[in-house]
Amino acid sequence: MPAIIAIGRLSSPFLRCYGLRWCSSIANYIAELRTRGLIRSTYPSKLDTEFAAELKSLPPVVYAGFDPTSKSLHIGNLLVLVNLLRCSQFGLRPIAIVGGATAAVGDPSGRSTERKSQAKDVLLRNTELIAAQLRNIAGNVLNDELIVIDNNTWFKEMSVVDYLRNCKHLRVGEMLRMGAIKSRLSEECGGISFTEFSYQTMQAIDWFMLLKEYNCRFQIGGSDQLGHLDLGAHYIKRTCEGKFAAGICLPLVTDRAGNKLGKSVGEGQVWLSADLTSPFHFYQFLRQLHDDEAELMYRYFSLDHWEDVSAKIAEHRLNLGKWIVQDALANELTKVVHGEKGLIMAQRCSRALFSSKMSACGAVIRGALRRTRVTIFQVRDGRSQILPVFAFVDDGEQLQQLREYLNSVGKANLDLKGPTGCIR
């Protein structure tokens, strides 16, 4: 298996280079996230207002973890990844942990039932795929290579006795107070296995190992990770002579109906893998967001300077209907996830779908359109004018619904002609 660790311990020249900025880098990074509305919670609470002195002591390193429970990250993970990479704008070094070991155990956060165990070979393959995906996306953003580490690196070398000795400074009372654990211990949920109960101990050890190897004492995570931040920071304080560690939790991104964005009712997940969600679909998902959702995501996800983001939002509000923010968001994030080539392909596919000359599409575009599972139709109105229409149609029932909808708009009877040449 190819090694996932790409870079070793941070060199002392790196630490010297950024040492003079410690007093402002972490604080400025947190302030930027606060301005964008990206801080749901912190450990300790009121981190950016009451712990100025402690923030000055933090080294310029930030980490986030990604468990390989699937063969691809999704758009919810992208929020954490983008804001991990954002720290590089403030002189900080990002580190990504791929939880090859923790995924085998299962995170109980946000769940009322036990996770299904995955086969070892599946977890191994997922770990390799997620690590490659993290490096590829980071390569579209950073000048330097992202440090990506599989936490199996240390857990596979750790005996049961070593693990239990490492847990000596973890307190069961604190572990039981975690919200995810308390909810799982209720009668409705039927309890929790020792396996998932121990997940938090492994995440605390992850942080400890990163402190030893990279001097990392700051972490960012998803909206449900506050309990893990709390436990990990206490663990570091007890095991490392009172050293201060801190972190933030990002908000959960939802649509207007309160569903997780990208996983609304009736829709599949929006994946970051081109094999699962094509660059075209990814681009169009962002391009078709409601104004409120687009503004929120633009604030959360854009790596542009905040002044430019706020100016773009102001311009958008003065020109509703021109999709200014949607265009900016779709262009930027498609390039971040799929690179320049992926963005160009998505833009060309989008333009081709709205062109009546589908036969003029190049072979590459036609192939990309076939993979989108979009069917192209021609609609003839009462004046014999041919209009291009595209729809996500997979069966006869959906086709009939499309036909009824087309005939219900306007006074003229619309005749569905097609599908045309660019159809799978």
**CATH H-level superfamily title of the largest domain:** HUPs
Strand order of the largest sheet: 1-6-5
Number of strands: 9
Determine the fraction of residues in helical runs and give it as a percent range.
40-55%
Q: Runs with pLDDT <50, length 5+?
A: 1-24, 356-361, 373-398, 409-424
**CATH architecture verdict of the largest domain:** 3-Layer(aba) Sandwich
**What is the gyration radius calculated from CA atoms?**
24 Å
* Mean pLDDT rating: 80
How many separate domains make up the residues? 3
Please characterize this protein's 3D structure.
With 424 residues, the chain is mainly alpha-helical. It has three domains: 12-249, HUPs (Rossmann fold); 256-353, Tyrosyl-Transfer RNA Synthetase (Orthogonal Bundle), CATH 1.10.240; 356-424, no CATH class. 49% of the residues lie in helices and 10% in strands. The protein has a three-stranded mixed sheet, with helices on both faces. Strands 2-3-4 form a three-stranded parallel sheet, covered by helices on one side. Helix 14 (226-239) links the parallel strand 5 (218-221) and strand 6 (246-249). The radius of gyration is 24 Å and the shape is globular. The protein starts with 11 loop residues before the first helix and ends in a 7-residue tail after the last strand.
